[in-house]
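Dear Dr. L.,

I hope this message finds you well. Following up on our conversation about the binding site, I have prepared a predicted three-dimensional model of the protein together with adenosine-5'-diphosphate. For your records, I am including the exact sequence and ligand specification that went into the calculation, followed by the structure tokens. Please feel free to forward this to your student if that is useful.
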Amino acid sequence: MTGTLADPGWSQAEDALHVLFKFDAFQPGQEDVLRAVFAGEDVLAVMPTGSGKSLCYQLPAMIRPGLTLVVSPLIALMRDQVLQLARRGIEAEALHSLNSAQENAWIMSRVRTGKVKLLYVAPERIALPQVQDTLRAAGTRFVAVDEAHCISSWGHDFRPDYLDLNSAMRALGSPQVLALTASADGPTRADIVRQLFERRPQVIVRSFDRPNLRLNFALKRRALQQVTRFVGKHRGETGLVYAATRRRTEMIASLLRARGHHALAYHAGLDEAARSAAQDAFLNRDGSVIVGTIAFGLGIDRPDVRFVCHADMPGSVEAYYQEIGRAGRDGKPADTLTLHGPEDALLRLSQIARHDRDPDHQSVETARFNTFQALCTSDACRNVAMLAALGEAAEPCGQCDNCRMGWPRRALGALARALPVSLTRFWTGGGYGLPDPEPTEAPWLLPQAAIPVPAPVKLSVAQLERLNGLRTARRARAQTLRVAPSALWPEDVLLQLAQAAQLDTPTVSALTACLPRAESEALAAALASLRHKDHG
Ligand code: ADP
Ligand code: ZN
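The resulting structure of the complex is given below.
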């Protein structure tokens, strides 16, 4: 039926859904996008992963005349879709750098003679003059730009090649454009509209709300215990645990195995056999728990995942959303727990400072992390706060940890924020609202819910000297690492070290156990040099 309809409209779209795709109905969002596309409009569609974005360009491509171009940065995805379309008898091809020159030339000749309905192209190919000539000659009328957030340098997946798309569109005679993305906050969205489109597009945003997910956050105290308790509540159910490092995934997996769970680690450092064993178990064995780095989960789809746990903090609301989003795809209730705390914040911020040389990018990444941290420490409904961060308004969910805790905790939190900083100075507990006696330039330190007021701290002169020595060492190190002093070595840790009667190795390592290893070592070294001074 391809190419035979002069001007197919909306009425044919529904038939095509049944006949070509064998689906009963459109998913939420698909219908809005398709109506706009069939009305000839340019569209920016912001829809969550799994909401069926590809159908929004495949269906029009199949029933409208002419060639449809799909720009995608993911070669694996292109190949996958070409195969799927071939199974439905649709002529689709993909132009990318993993094809041989002959293969690409052969594809181009088929495009030129009108044999191809859907052509997937890697972004860098579309800038080539000979490719543009062929596409123009073939009558390209519709271009879908997948992963459209790649055009924005604010986005986490910025691809410079995407910046050439706008001029490529003009070279092709300004065809209709449908841009698609699953992750576009306000600034990214504005960037896409500005950089990609010549006409003002219709922006269609499908809700990111996942009402069957129960969002819970907890301050990280004893992470391993907290994780095993949470997983224990879901014994026999299939779930995911995310951890920051390879070592931690293995540690948590073996701990869970020791408690009788069928748990397997997954990370990029494992050999092929171990990784596919984990994937197999996850897909086929009920009640398996995969403990993975964020490498796990991409492209792996199991509808009845009942829980997701973050043993360590994700780096942004988008990442958090993606990861918890792997639970409850069947629409039934699913539980989540995300641990957060100052050590994670420190780690993340020093990673950004170390690995990201571009200062603009650094500040964007820091801002992203701050937004996520604000979600962790918020006392509002988690769902409302999360959706607000994703640019959407919502009503309180009634089931997240904050909604269930209700007003007493919220009132305490408000009280804590209303009190002067000096009063809350020693309200300790390792929260990252910990006010610092030193001036701090760190905007990421956010207020935390109230903790009962402890008795005032009295220090001897020697203890005070030790405390000040540690603070000086902390300030120097914080400057080198470009993080806030209080995020580096929490004030209460310094206080406990200052008050400790004995400073033997076991005591010091117990008192600094909450810190990342590099920090506990640096702190121990600072302490040793202070004592050296004392005695010398
Ligand atoms: P996205 O690109 O938004 O992540 P996909 O296009 O990969 O999503 O689609 C996700 C899944 O939903 C696919 O398995 C697809 O076949 C299925 N799907 C798409 N549209 C429909 C529909 N109208 N009814 C049922 N399933 C659909
Ligand atoms: Zn809520």
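In brief: Residues 10-205 form a domain with the Rossmann fold fold (CATH 3.40.50.300).

With kind regards,
A. P.
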